[in-house]
Amino acid sequence: MSLSESFITVTTSANYVRVFTLFGIPYRVYRPKSSPTVTCASWRDYVLTIGNGAVGPDGITRLQYTIENVKRDEVIQNEDTVALPEGATLQSVFFSDNGEPCIYDSTGTLLTLLHWRQPSRAYWVPLLDTKLLDRLASGRKSESYFPVAVADNKFHCIILKGGDRYPYFPRPLLSEFEFSIPLSSAPKEKLRKNDEDETMEDDEDESAESETKKLEQQFILQGVKAAQLRDLVDSTSGSHSQRSLLARLELEIDKTLLQLLAVECREGEERGMRALEMVELMRDRTGRMFEAAGKVADRYERTLLGEKIREVGERRTGGLDDDE
């Protein structure tokens, strides 16, 4: 059963999905194609149902999800596969406070569904892999996380100690973790140790690498947020405040790329191609960010890079960019 601001959705053992208004008036009854239905979640007029699909090559049934707008009687995502790795199980499905579908699986990974408002374009993006949290890097802690919500761009959960699977009484306080998209498979501490043992980098190099990783994480997270907001704006003819927020978010993405550019310029002339690629990822169409990027290159005496940056800026502002 799930409850939203508009409807109550009930999945039953009789393979029916029953939708009621908030005051109990029957609104819709149907039998889903993927049955039996496993669970459901709701947000405003949207209902996400998950049911059993075809059996995979490993003999395990694949879960499939459907998202529909109940009020408009419109199916948006139809019988698509829930992205679970081999041997993993679905632990929770819910919508975030902004209305983005999310799942949490038995591997401790939180994922969100990107581009779900556009038919056949949706895919699952990991927002957090709890196995890579800094608090577990030492290997001395044994804990798992019971998902509660995704709100304010954070993962809210209850920490379970030892082998506990469900919250106990008295219920512990909620904990929250910042999103951290898994850009690598190894914990940060292990990466540092490998670098020290194999390459003996000095403290300055480690600081630059740490700064780069932090900015890369910031860049990709901002990209996900911008994609979610753009989907909302495009599908609802967004309000002025939403469009202004999207413009500010895209500006923040360009500022992050500027910071990454400065790091690359400090590292040396041989990083010029990577630095230029960062400039090409900028979303600015006014030319101001390209002018700022050129100044960054000039500050570090990267003359050739500065010329290339200005060429990219001229193409972009002149509408000659291949991506246009």
TrEMBL record:
<feature type="region of interest" description="Disordered">
    <location>
        <begin position="188"/>
        <end position="212"/>
    </location>
</feature>
<keyword id="KW-0853">WD repeat</keyword>
<dbReference type="GO" id="GO:0043596">
    <property type="term" value="C:nuclear replication fork"/>
</dbReference>
<dbReference type="Pfam" id="PF12341">
    <property type="entry name" value="Mcl1_mid"/>
</dbReference>
<protein>
    <recommendedName>
        <fullName>Minichromosome loss protein Mcl1 middle region domain-containing protein</fullName>
    </recommendedName>
</protein>
<dbReference type="GO" id="GO:0006261">
    <property type="term" value="P:DNA-templated DNA replication"/>
</dbReference>
<dbReference type="GO" id="GO:0003682">
    <property type="term" value="F:chromatin binding"/>
</dbReference>
<dbReference type="GO" id="GO:0006281">
    <property type="term" value="P:DNA repair"/>
</dbReference>
<feature type="domain" description="WDHD1/CFT4 helical bundle">
    <location>
        <begin position="214"/>
        <end position="316"/>
    </location>
</feature>
<dbReference type="InterPro" id="IPR048591">
    <property type="entry name" value="WDHD1/CFT4_hel"/>
</dbReference>
<keyword id="KW-0677">Repeat</keyword>
<feature type="compositionally biased region" description="Acidic residues">
    <location>
        <begin position="196"/>
        <end position="209"/>
    </location>
</feature>
<dbReference type="Pfam" id="PF20946">
    <property type="entry name" value="Ctf4_C"/>
</dbReference>
<dbReference type="GO" id="GO:0000278">
    <property type="term" value="P:mitotic cell cycle"/>
</dbReference>
<keyword id="KW-0539">Nucleus</keyword>
<feature type="domain" description="WDHD1/CFT4 second beta-propeller">
    <location>
        <begin position="2"/>
        <end position="183"/>
    </location>
</feature>
<dbReference type="InterPro" id="IPR022100">
    <property type="entry name" value="WDHD1/CFT4_beta-prop_2nd"/>
</dbReference>
